[in-house]
Amino acid sequence: MGLVGQNDKKGLRGSLCRRAGIHGGLAVLVAALAAAALASGCARPSAQVSPAPGQQRLQAPPARSLDSYADRLRTSYAQRTAAARRWGLERVPLTPPPPPATKPKVTARPGFEVEHQGDWDLPPVFTTVPTKDKVVFLTIDDGAEKDPAFLRMMSDLKIPYTAFLTNYLIEGDYDYFRRMQASGVTLNNHTLRHLYLPGLSYEEQRREICDMQGIMRKEFGKRPRMFRPPYGNYNQDTLRAAKSCGIEYVPIWNEEVHVDHWEFREDDQRLRPGDIVLTHFRGPGEWNGTMIDDMRQFLDHVTAKGFAVARLEDYL
Ligand SMILES: [Zn+2]
C-alpha cells in the first residue's frame, strides 16, 4: 500500500512584511457606524426651544442601539489594539467572521487519498478547508514547550488555535494543557511517542493512535475527533486505525511557521482562504526565540495579508 509523504522541510522561505504601525479595517467600520448614528438622529436638533424639565424628548431607540453598537465595536477594537501593543505586534489582528451556519464538506486533498478512501469512508487528510472566508486556522503540535506567557498572550488577543499533542512530551505536565483547554482550545491526538507511522504494523499504529485517545479521554475528559500523524506521514493502515477509535478528520497543513521564517507547500507562497497553518510548542532550547516570538511571526504576516485567524472546529 502506498505511502504518502510530506516534504514539509523543503518549503521555500516567505518574505515578511515589516511595516511599522498598527492599523485595522474596523476603525473604518466604527467611523461609518458613528456617522450613520449621527445621520439617523443622534445629533442635537438646533434652533428649538428647550422643553420643560421632565419633558425632554427621548432619543429614538434604533439610533441609540446603533450608537451603543458603535461604542461596543470601538471599545473592543481599542482593547485589541492595546493587547496588540502589549504583545509587541506590528498590526492589530483582524476579527474573523461568525462561524459558518452550514459546515463545508471536507474531503481528502487530491493526491492525499489512500486506496479505498471513499468506499471505506476513511477520515480525510486535508491541508485547506473549503471556504471563501478570508481566514486561516492555527494548529500547534507536540507539546514540548509549556510557556505560561503564551497562554496569557493568546487569551489576551483572543486568537483561537487547535493543539495536537504527543503523550511523551506532555505527560509531565497535563495541567498546563488543562489550562489551555479551559481557555477554549480543543486538544487533539498526535500519538503516544511521535513515531514514523508508515514504518509500523496496523496493530502498532493502533496502539500509537488509539491508546492516545484513551489517555486524552482520561486526562482531558474528551476523546478527540482530530488526529495528525507525526511529520504528516501516513498510509492506509494509519487512517483505518484512526477511524477505529473515533477519529473523523486528519488535518495536516499548507504552511508551517518557525520562529524566524515561513515555509509554504504551494510554490506561489501565498496564504489561501481556509489554509491550515502548523507551528510547534517550542522554546529557546529548540529554536532561536520564544512562543511569543513565534506568534508574532505568525500573526503579523497573517494580518498583513488581510487574513483573520478562525477556529478550525467551527468549520468542521
Ligand atoms: Zn509533531
From TrEMBL:
Listed Gene3D superfamilies: Glycoside hydrolase/deacetylase
Domain spans labelled NodB homology: 134-316
This protein's record includes keyword Nuclease: no
N-terminal signal peptide: none
Transmembrane segments: 20-39
Residues covered by region (Disordered): 45-65
Keywords: Membrane, Transmembrane, Transmembrane helix
Name recorded for this polypeptide: Polysaccharide deacetylase family protein
Organism in which the protein naturally occurs: Streptomyces kebangsaanensis
